[in-house]
Amino acid sequence: MKSFVISSNDAGVKVDKFIFKTFDRLPKSLMFKEIRKKNIKVNKKRCTPDQILCEGDILELYLKDDVLHIKEKHLDFMKASDDLDIIYEDENIILINKKVGVLCHPDGKDYIDNIVARLKRYLYEKGEWSPESSSFTPSLANRIDRNTGGIVIGAKNSQALKILNDKIKSREIEKYYLTVVHGKMPRKSETLTAFLTKNEKTNTVTVTDNQVDGSKKIITKYTVLDYYDDASLLEIELMTGRTHQIRAHLAHIGHPLYGDGKYGLEQGRYRQALYSYKLKFSFTDDNLLSYLNGRTFQAQNIKLLDDYKEKKFV
Fold first, then answer.
1. What is the rounded CA–CA span in Å between residue 37 and residue 22?
2. For residues 32-45, average pLDDT
């Protein structure tokens, strides 16, 4: 027999899903059978496979020990770097300043060291999270390309992750970027509108002035902060959030980003001058993260700004 007290990170999960994630020797057919026989209960009462677990619920399994073998969870994330530039942290979220060249999530070549793995290691070493005691995995609510630096938002629990995902989608988390582009911009500030079409096979996008089949509207607002010679330093506010939107949109109007080998002038280079440097929380309702409403967070020690001041963009 085994008993579990449901934590906040496991709240909202169905009974069958929790059991599947917890045990590796309990066949589905046997689990359904034992639920019907009332050998699996929630709060001492009969349950159903699709019953939603709540924080504080007690799940009990009156089964033989040989089928109640808890899955071993590997700690590959402990091999990740412990280099994590934290801008802000509380019990629900963490804001991380990602360096250029670091992946947000694992891919085929760089599975071990990425921001998600570093976050897991950090929280594990702090004793705030463990894969053995929680079915929730610390996650990022947004992502940034490998060769773009800036702020990524980490969620420490499932409720925070849901709210962050919803607020990013509804544009209640405002994102601002710094970039350096070729040429002097025609206006001090402007809101650009166009249409973007994505090619999934090549992972590239095209921007057109008029809507075409498969295209989506994009809105990009820029403000000129400074310029010299053939370089303009811009602040970008994303009014929509499409793949490669900033890079492709500015290239479309004749001002590609410095170092952009995909949409710019420097073919083969992939260190585009782009940095997600500021976030503002502008919630319209009360929620778990309402204490962040109206607050702005900004990254420090931005190499792009240092390079611009030293006039390296020529």
1. 20
2. 96
